[in-house]
Design a protein that fits this description.
Helix content of chain B: 25-40%
Largest sheet of chain B: 6 strands, mixed
Order of helices and strands of chain B: EEEHEEHEHHHEHEHEEH
Number of strands of chain A: 4
Structural class of chain A: alpha+beta
Order of helices and strands of chain A: HHEHEHHEHEHHHH
Largest interface: A-B, 34 and 39 residues
Shape of chain A: elongated
Number of helices of chain A: 10
Radius of gyration of chain B: 17 Å
Strand order of the largest sheet of chain B: 6-7-8-3-9-10
Number of helices of chain B: 8
Largest sheet of chain A: 4 strands, antiparallel
Strand content of chain A: 5-15%
Oligomer: heterodimer
Distance between the termini of chain B: 16 Å
Strand content of chain B: 15-25%
Distance between the termini of chain A: 29 Å
Chain lengths: 320, 225
């Protein structure tokens, strides 16, 4: 026989909803208070997180600076178009006039065969050898100085490609290949930085996960009692997730401070070095958007770490 | 309120704690659950609160079939059961007030309502002046009364007590039992597991006696029919 269900009076849905929000706010504050109640252990965890985040973030800012410097050097880039030998002087001039009006072109110089030969003789030291030939082997060359803009290195690739497709052009070459090389090296460093950042991010997740795991073990009795009197898993999880949030948040802020201080220490020597090269270059520091990104990332990592620990260890604790 | 039908509980080790137990307890009654150590009293209570699951049979608690209850529903079932433990299970880093407020916080009551209900519960167990105290500073009897206040603060229809007077002297035990009696008089079903014979004889409530995992005597039955 089943008796009529006797339900305990429950608060109304609206009340529960607002109490839910209040509970979140309370847990948010109490989990922060819990970290501060044990300041030494809390500070250690936050410092480890901050250092792990500050390393890639600092390198990233340095890389941004390096890109800024190299952007200034792009002005030295030249594109040489070696024209097909069957093209006559009129054809070459027509092409030069056509290219001159393109938006990517800042300056353009046409070097005809004879001029090229003169230059080559003067500069290469093979003058006598060339005299032995009965015709001029050198092609007509158009040298283009491209317009510099922020993404010049990338844009130049596309521009070069379009020049190459011209029927009159035999060979288009970006002179001073080191611009491209520098760009490639920056890309390589960026990739390496990404790998390091991913590994250190993983380390942050594990550090927070481990801290939360210890926290869970210390509060075992509390968790058991909560489960006994009807707390849902979400309720029990909440303080630990917020603790992870705070570790990430505080770690992110400390990382920003570390990066700013570190770059600040580099600023004067960099300025002195730039001065020696007659450059007014100044080391740029963490920008506002980078700070927001770094802290957001840290919070996400903190949340992930605690989520990992909570998922694994809360299930193991059951009253018995 | 409680309906055991052919309940069997075997622990992973292979030992059978309850075998083929059928038992009924109507709502609004009060009874003692007794028996020797190892007779299955603890298992009996753990099955009701789904701390353990039965290996066979059907168990209905407060109209809910708990033999098949999914894990995510268990917390809501437990909110309808007030549990009192021999070792109180209080949280020592929180005040008496916060300990008693815990079930209400979990259920999502508003702050003002929590204060009102906690004080009402404290008043019932006679500890109104101790709300700011920490459990460690209280005597054993007072701690147990805090445990009772926490169990009843949510006004559950069913109270389960597992050796609630185990560590208390006879006078304090009697006081605790009188509290249970008072809750029973306002309609709460009360089941007290104990082997305190003098107390049982003094109180004149029906006895449910377990022996070796089976029901030896159900004092509720004769009076019920």
């Amino acid at each position: 026989m089943v008796e009529p269900v006797q339900k305990t009076a429950r608060p109304e849905f609206k009340t529960r909803l607002s109490a839910f929000g209040i509970n979140h706010a309370q847990v948010l504050l109490s989990s922060l208070g819990r970290i501060f109640r044990n300041p030494f252990a809390g500070m250690m965890t936050v410092s480890v997180i901050a250092i792990a985040l500050a390393l890639p973030a600092g390198f990233y800012v340095l890389l941004q600076n390096a890109q800024q410097i190299s952007a200034g050097w792009d002005g030295a880039a030249r594109i040489s178009l070696y024209l097909k030998s069957e093209l006559d002087k009129v054809g070459a001039e027509r092409l030069a006039d056509e290219l001159r009006i393109l938006p990517e072109v800042e300056k353009l110089r046409l070097i005809d065969k004879a001029e090229a030969l003169r230059e080559f003789k003067a500069l290469s030291g093979f003058g006598d050898a060339l005299d032995a030939l009965d015709s001029n082997p050198l092609p007509t060359v158009i040298v283009i100085t491209p317009v510099i803009d922020t993404e010049s290195a990338q844009n130049m690739e596309g521009f070069l490609e379009r020049l190459r497709e011209r029927p009159e052009v035999d060979l288009a070459q970006l002179d001073l290949q080191w611009v491209k090389r520098l760009y490639t090296i920056t890309r390589l460093i960026q990739r390496g930085l990404l790998i390091i950042a991913a590994m250190l991010g993983l380390a942050v997740i594990l550090v927070i996960g481990n801290t939360i795991r210890l926290d869970i073990q210390n509060r075992r009795v509390e968790i058991e009692v909560n489960k006994l009197i009807g707390a849902t898993n979400a309720f029990i999880r909440r303080p630990f997730l917020y603790t992870g949030f705070w570790y990430g948040f505080l770690g992110g802020i400390l990382a920003c401070i570390l990066v700013t201080v570190g770059l600040g220490m580099l600023r004067t020597p960099v300025k002195r070095l730039a001065g020696l090269y007659d450059s007014g270059f100044e080391l740029m520091t963490l920008q506002f958007t980078s700070i927001i990104t770094l802290i957001t990332l840290a919070v996400v990592l903190g949340w992930l770490g605690s989520r990992l620990a909570v998922g694994r260890h809360l299930r193991e604790i059951e009253p018995g | 309120m409680l309906q055991f039908t052919n309940i069997r509980k075997r622990y992973p080790g292979g030992q059978e704690a309850l075998s083929d137990l059928t038992f009924h307890m109507p709502a609004g009654r009060m009874a003692f659950l007794t028996g020797h150590s190892g007779a299955g009293k603890s298992t009996f209570l753990k099955l009701i609160t789904v701390i353990e699951r039965c290996t066979g049979g059907q168990l209905i608690v407060n109209g809910v079939n708990v033999s098949k209850i999914p894990a995510r529903r268990i917390p809501y079932l437990r909110r309808n059961i007030g549990m009192i433990f021999q070792d109180h299970q209080l949280l020592h880093d929180r005040t008496v007030f916060d300990n008693i407020a815990l079930p209400l916080v979990i259920a999502g009551y508003r702050h003002r309502e929590i204060g009102r209900r906690v004080r009402a519960a404290l008043d019932k167990v006679g500890l109104l002046k101790k709300e700011r105290a920490y459990p460690m500073t209280l005597s054993g009897g007072e701690q147990q009364r805090v445990g009772i206040a926490r169990a009843v603060v949510n006004k559950p229809p069913l109270l389960l007590a597992d050796e609630p007077t185990g560590n208390l002297d006879p006078d304090l035990s009697r006081e605790i039992m009188q509290l249970f009696e008072a809750f029973n008089q306002v309609g709460v079903t009360v089941l007290v597991a104990t082997h305190d014979i003098s107390l049982i004889e003094e109180m004149h409530y029906p006895q449910v006696i377990l022996k070796n995992g089976t029901l030896l005597h159900n004092g509720l039955e004769g009076q019920n029919e």
